[in-house]
Specification:
By secondary structure, the chain is α+β, with helices and mostly antiparallel strands. It has one domain: Orthogonal Bundle (Arc Repressor Mutant, subunit A). The protein is built from seven helices and five strands; from the N terminus they run αααααββββαβα. A three-stranded mixed sheet has the order 4-3-5. Strands 1-2 form a two-stranded antiparallel sheet. α2 runs antiparallel to α3, α3 crosses α5 and α4 crosses α5. The protein is globular and about 50 Å long.
Length: 171
């Protein structure tokens, strides 16, 4: 059976669902984070870097305690503030996102510019795809403007089944 994912251009797929060289994905993301922190004068400490590495290992959102367990395994300590401070830094500086639906975190797929992503969360495997949400955000802002509502923060999360899990359920 031909995968639905192979029928579309992989470049148009949200990262997390597209087939790609994950080692290159991880090394490029770490290099971009290093460059961004150097450019902005931010301290990319070893624990912050390690938390980003942990988030980059998979395209699944991870909870703070899962991250803390991995930090402990690598000798970074076992106190929750260690993980939370690193996660706060990564989110505040656009290197990671919080997935509200899962109360978990994922590495940002596009750290080159500020954006409001849309997240597609697979309810079967918890893989998270990140895509730009400009059209959805524009429509929401138009409705808000018409009603006088002032949007301060937008989070777009959709739950469903990813292409990989859909292929498995069709087999």
């Amino acid at each position: 059976m031909t995968s639905k994912a192979t029928k579309l251009n992989a470049a148009s797929y949200p990262l997390g669902f597209a087939q790609h060289d994950h080692n290159t994905c991880m090394s490029d993301a770490l290099a971009a984070a290093n460059a961004r922190c150097a450019q902005d004068g931010l301290r990319f400490t070893p624990v912050r870097r390690k938390v980003l590495e942990i988030l980059l290992q998979d395209h699944r959102a991870l909870g703070a305690y899962t991250i803390l367990d991995k930090l402990r395994e690598d000798g970074f300590g076992s106190q929750p503030p260690i993980a939370y401070r690193a996660l706060d830094f990564l989110v505040e500086n656009g290197l990671a996102h919080k997935i509200e639906r899962l109360n978990a975190f994922i590495a940002c797929a596009n750290t080159t510019h500020s954006h409001t992503p849309a997240f597609m969360i697979c309810r079967l495997c918890n893989t998270v795809g990140e895509a730009l949400s400009s059209s959805a955000r524009t429509a929401l802002h138009e409705v808000a403007r018409a009603t006088g509502f002032q949007i301060e923060r937008t989070i777009i999360e959709a739950e469903g089944i990813c292409p990989s899990c859909a292929d498995k359920t069709e087999s």
